[in-house]
Structures are given as C-alpha cells and as structure tokens.
From TrEMBL:
InterPro entries: Dimeric_a/b-barrel (IPR011008), EthD_dom (IPR009799)
Record-given protein name: EthD domain-containing protein
SUPFAM superfamilies, sorted: Dimeric alpha+beta barrel (SSF54909)
Domain of life: Bacteria
Length: 130
C-alpha cells in the first residue's frame, strides 16, 4: 500500500469516527496525547509499517475528539529534525483517554508500537491546554 492510499484510509477512518485533522471551535480545553518518534534506523521500513499497518489500527479507535499524524521536516538551517514523526490525539479528560485506550482497538494500538519502533525512541507526552 502506498503512502497516498494509507493516508486516504486514515482520513476515511477518522471521518467515519466523526473526527478530522482540522481544528474546530470545540477543541478548547481537554488533553492531548503526543507520541514523538525518533529517527528510525530504516525510514523506508518504518514508513511502510507505520502507514500500512499501524495507522489503520489507529483509525479504528473510536471516541477520541481528534487525531493528527505528521512527518517532521528539517530545521530552517537544513539540520535534521529532533523527531521523525509526531502523532497527536485529543480527549476530554485523562479518564476519557484511559477509557478509549482500554477498548480492544486501543489495546491493539498500544500492543503494536513495539512491532515497528525497534532502534528508535518513542516519547509520549500528555498535555493540558492552558
């Protein structure tokens, strides 16, 4: 599956779940889970798995307010970015986040992360808007 097809499937999955990558007026407050992936040893293999296997699992998760995935670009001076990819997912509260990840779909996503992150760092942050 190529990148465009994978992104289309992700978009369809998010739309089916009532989510979009665009901010809405009700995106104030709540919390955001951020997953920051360090540079992988083999970017081509990482991309193939991330877009072809992992993101379809993520798209199957129901109940999050919003989801967004991005690939990091070089810095303005051309130096490599600190992270390779960033994923963000918004929730109403920590309890809401816990409930979403306690579903069978959420458990599949959590269990899948080690399948494509060997040799790279995975940093998770939970943030609250000011």
């Amino acid at each position: 599956m190529d990148r465009r097809t994978s992104l289309s499937l992700l978009t369809v999955g998010l739309a089916t779940a009532g989510l979009s990558g665009a901010a809405t007026a009700d995106d104030t407050g709540g919390i955001k889970l951020m997953v920051l992936y360090g540079p992988p040893p083999n970017p081509e293999e990482f991309e193939k798995y991330y877009l072809g296997v992992h993101m379809p699992l993520v798209a199957a998760i129901k109940g999050a307010r919003r989801m967004e995935a991005a690939k990091c670009l070089p810095q303005a001076d051309g130096s490599p970015p600190a992270f390779y990819r960033v994923f963000e997912m918004w929730f109403d509260s920590p309890e809401h986040m816990a409930a979403v990840f306690d579903t069978p779909e959420g458990k599949k996503v959590r269990a899948d992360v080690p399948n494509f992150t060997s040799g790279t760092t995975v940093t998770r942050l939970v943030c609250k808007r000011d």
